[in-house]
Q: What sequence folds into this?
C-alpha cells in the first residue's frame, strides 16, 4: 500500500464523471503538443491554396484574412480548452456534445458531431495526400529541368500513385504504438519550426526584388476572367478560405487526452499552444511568400518553369534562380514543405483513427428516445447516467 502510485489528475476527474479509465497514459505534454501541432501543420494549409486565394482577390484579403480568422479561432480554442479540462476523454467532441446538449438532444448532437468530424478528418487525409503529391510533382519537375527545359511533369497516373502511396504509408505507420507516432511527431515539430524559420527568413533575403508593403497589405485585385467570380465580396470570402482551412486540427490534443498524463491540464495547454504557434508562423509564411513575388501575372502562366501548376513553387524558383541561376535552393525548400505534408498527413491519420475507433467501439443507438448500450460498450451506460438517464439491463 505504501508503494501505490498516485492517481493521475485526469484519471481522477474521469472517476468523478463515472468514466472508467480504458487506455494507458503514456503521453507527455510535449508529445501531445507535437501531434496537435503536426495535425495543424505550418505549410500544409497555406501552400496548396495560396495560389488560388491570391488569384481571387489579391494579397490584402489573404494577409488580413489570416489575422481575422486567427482572432476568432482563439475563441473556439479557448472554449475547447475549457471543456477539455472538464471532460478529458478520448471521445472528446462527440462525448462533450452528448453531455452538454442534455438528455433530449444529446444523442442526436453526439451522432452528428461524431460523423461530421469523421468525414472532415478523412477528407483531411485526402487533402494532405493531394497537396503532398502536388509538391512532389514540382520537386521532380525542377530536379529534371523545368517545364521550359523539358523537365518531367508527372502525369495523372503517376500523381495518383503518389497519392495512394502516401495514404498507405500513413496507414502502415499508424499500426505502430502511439509512442512511435509521438516520436515521429516530435521530429515533425522541430522540422516545421526550424524549416519554417529558415524559409520565412531566407526567402525574402534571397529574392532579388521584393514587393512593396503597399502591394502586400493593401492591393485588392480580382480576376473574374480566370476565377469566374465577378462579385468582389464573394472573391474576398474565397480568398480567406486559405486561413479557414489552415487553422484547424488543434482538437487532436483532445482526442489523446485519455492517453495523456495530466490531460485535464496538458490537453488545454497543447490546444492553445498549437493555435498560438501556427497563428504566428502561418502569417509570417504568408508574408514571406507575398513579399517575394517577382511578377504576379507570371505565376499563373502555363508556360512558366513550373507549368503554372503550383504558385509557391514558382515563387521559390524565381527567388533562387534569379539570384543564383540555379533551382537547387527551391528544391530544398520544397522538400521541407513536402516533409510538412508527410508529417501532417500522418498526424491527421492518427486523429482519424482515434475518432473512428471510438465510434466503432462505442457506437450510439437512439431507441425510444434514449441511449441504449451495445453488448460491450460501457461508455454508453456512463453517458446515459451522465445525462440523467436510468439505463436498465434485463436480468436473467
A:
Amino acid at each position: 500500500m505504501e508503494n501505490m502510485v498516485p492517481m493521475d489528475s485526469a484519471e481522477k476527474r474521469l472517476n468523478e464523471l463515472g468514466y472508467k479509465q480504458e487506455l494507458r497514459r503514456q503521453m507527455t505534454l510535449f508529445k501531445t503538443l507535437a501531434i496537435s501541432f503536426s495535425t495543424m501543420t505550418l505549410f500544409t494549409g497555406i501552400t496548396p491554396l495560396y495560389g488560388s486565394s491570391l488569384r481571387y482577390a489579391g494579397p490584402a484579403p489573404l494577409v488580413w484574412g489570416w489575422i481575422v480568422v486567427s482572432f476568432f479561432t482563439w475563441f473556439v480554442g479557448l472554449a475547447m480548452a475549457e471543456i477539455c479540462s472538464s471532460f478529458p476523454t478520448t471521445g472528446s467532441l462527440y462525448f462533450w456534445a452528448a453531455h452538454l446538449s442534455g438528455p433530449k438532444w444529446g444523442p442526436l448532437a453526439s451522432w452528428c458531431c461524431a460523423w461530421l468530424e469523421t468525414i472532415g478528418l478523412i477528407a483531411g487525409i485526402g487533402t494532405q495526400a493531394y497537396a503532398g503529391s502536388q509538391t512532389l510533382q514540382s520537386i521532380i519537375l525542377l530536379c529534371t529541368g523545368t517545364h521550359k527545359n523539358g523537365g518531367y511533369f508527372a502525369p495523372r497516373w503517376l500523381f495518383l500513385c503518389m497519392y495512394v502511396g502516401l495514404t498507405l504509408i500513413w496507414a502502415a505507420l499508424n499500426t505502430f504504438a502511439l509512442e512511435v507516432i509521438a516520436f515521429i511527431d516530435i521530429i515533425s515539430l522541430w522540422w516545421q519550426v526550424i524549416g519554417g524559420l529558415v524559409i520565412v527568413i531566407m526567402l525574402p533575403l534571397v529574392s532579388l526584388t521584393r514587393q512593396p508593403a503597399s502591394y502586400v497589405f493593401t492591393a485588392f485585385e480580382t480576376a473574374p476572367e480566370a476565377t469566374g467570380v465577378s462579385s468582389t465580396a464573394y472573391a474576398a470570402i474565397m480568398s480567406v478560405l486559405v486561413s479557414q482551412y489552415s487553422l484547424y486540427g488543434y482538437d487532436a490534443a483532445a482526442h489523446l487526452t485519455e492517453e495523456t498524463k495530466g490531460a485535464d491540464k496538458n490537453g488545454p495547454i497543447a490546444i492553445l499552444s498549437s493555435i498560438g504557434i501556427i497563428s504566428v508562423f502561418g502569417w509570417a509564411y504568408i508574408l514571406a511568400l507575398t513579399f517575394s513575388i517577382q511578377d504576379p501575372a507570371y505565376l499563373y502562366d502555363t508556360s512558366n518553369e513550373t507549368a503554372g501548376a503550383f504558385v509557391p513553387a514558382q515563387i521559390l524558383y524565381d527567388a533562387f534562380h534569379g539570384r543564383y541561376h540555379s533551382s537547387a535552393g527551391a528544391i530544398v525548400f520544397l522538400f521541407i514543405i513536402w516533409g510538412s505534408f508527410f508529417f501532417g498527413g500522418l498526424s491527421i491519420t492518427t486523429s482519424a483513427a482515434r475518432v473512428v475507433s471510438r465510434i466503432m467501439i462505442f457506437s450510439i443507438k437512439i431507441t425510444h428516445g434514449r441511449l441504449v448500450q451495445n453488448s460491450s460498450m460501457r461508455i454508453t451506460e456512463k453517458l446515459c447516467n451522465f445525462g440523467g438517464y436510468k439505463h436498465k439491463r434485463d436480468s436473467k
User: Anything to note?
Assistant: The longest strand covers residues 365-367. The radius of gyration is 23 Å. Strands lie at 365-367, 370-372.
